[in-house]
Amino acid sequence: MEKPESPFYALQQSVDPSVQADSTAKIQRCSYSNPVHNIDRLFTLAYELHEQNALPALVFNYDRSQCETAARSIVSELIDTEAAFKESDRIWKKKLREF
Question: Is the pTM of this model over 0.70?
Answer without folding.
Answer: no
